[in-house]
Amino acid sequence: MIVVTGAAGFIGSCLISSLNKKGFRAIVAVDDFSNEEKNKNLQEKQIIERVDRDDFFGWIENNQKQIEFIFHLGARTDTTEFDRELLWKLNTNYSKKVFELCTLYQIPLVYASSAATYGLGEIGYDDDESRLSELKPLNPYGESKNEFDIWVLQQEKKPFFWAGLKFFNVYGPNEYHKGRMASVILHAYHQIEKTGKMKLFQSHNPAYKDGEQMRDFVYVMDVCSICLFLMHHRKDSGIYNLGSGRARTFKDLVLAVFNALEKKPEIEFIPTPEDIRDKYQYFTEASMTKLRSIGYDQPFTELESGVVDYVKGYLSKSTYY
Question: Which residues bind NADP(+) per the record (predicted)?
Fold first, then answer.
């Protein structure tokens, strides 16, 4: 059995679809299944069992001999969440228990970290484990992820294989339920369809022109490909960046959406809200050297190609992957 936590979520549900396509059908889905909108992500997926996240630890103890691999992708992912107690419960402490059980039963594990751990990128975006304690996340969400990464490295006993993945700006199908936390592509699609134009934040940094703030956008299909690679690889444990390795501007991204919709570009720039202005990231770019060094050699999807596939293959049809 392959276990996916956060199974009904964006990345988790896409991973299950990729696993199914590769012939893996003994999938156990773990999540809080109370959100009906989110549960639509699991329609037509081949899953043998659904386990509520509150019952997961006992389920592992009862089924540990049948578990081949765990992908722990479940978390509270809202970067605007400031309830530290909730974040530490769902992100840090829950993950510690998963890691301890995987260690006890020697179950290989891949878990979701986040590029939010890098903060403003004061020391860059290199996945150097020796510098985790120097990172300065901008919000409690990033702190909860970084605290877990640090804790993992401090453990004397670990699963025989484990990997933490620092997701950068992931986009793609199955994020319909995410509301304001969905990718800019989803918001651009709806805004352009409704109004014919797209609003982007102005730059308040003289080093960047309006719309030229940069992010490392990575297509969810590439994320799934890397997860499958690690499931088969099962060596070289550690914490890895997961981006495309190439920063692109928000203007590039929005122009790609206009192109996919075959509409004339019209972009309006609005002031960045003052409450987030001093914590706004102007540049993120994953160093992917470490992942490449252990043998992952697949090319990453170009932003324009990924946007076309997402818009034409999924958003315009309201379909799921």
Answer: 10-11, 31-32, 38, 53, 73-77, 145, 170, 178
Q: Would the annotation count 123 as a binding residue?
A: no
| 75 annotated as belonging to a binding site for a ligand | yes
Catalytic residue among 94, 118, 141, 171: 141
| 26 belongs to an annotated ligand binding site | no
From first to last of the 321 residues of the chain, give the pLDDT tens digit.
Answer: 999 999 999 999 999 999 999 999 999 999 999 999 999 999 999 999 999 999 999 999 999 999 999 999 998 776 666 788 888 888 899 999 999 999 999 999 999 999 999 999 999 999 999 999 999 998 889 999 999 999 999 999 999 999 999 999 999 999 999 988 899 999 999 999 999 999 999 999 999 999 999 999 999 999 999 999 999 999 999 999 999 999 999 999 999 999 999 999 999 999 998 888 888 889 999 999 999 999 999 999 999 999 999 999 999 999 999
Phi, then psi, of 91 in degrees rounded to 5: -100, -55
Query: Is 97 marked active-site?
Result: no
Cβ proximity of 178 and 172 under 8 Å: no
- Residue 71 belongs to domain spanning: 2-171+217-245+284-301
Per the structure, the count of domains in the chain is 1
Asked if the structure places residue 274 within a domain, the reply is: no
Burial per residue of 283-310, b for 16 or more beta-carbon CB atoms within 10 angstroms, e otherwise:
bbbbbbebbeeeeeeeebbebbebbbbb
Domain assignment of residue 71, yes or no? yes
Encoded amino acid at 304, one letter? E
* Total-model pTM: 0.96
Cα 205 to Cα 3: distance, rounded to the nearest angstrom = 44
Helices (H) and strands (E) in the chain, counts: 12, 13
Question: Which residue among 136, 158, 178, 197 is the active-site one?
Answer: 178
Q: Is 31 annotated as a binding residue?
A: yes
Residue 117 belongs to a domain: yes
Rg (CA), the chain: 19
Q: Say whether 141 is catalytic.
A: yes
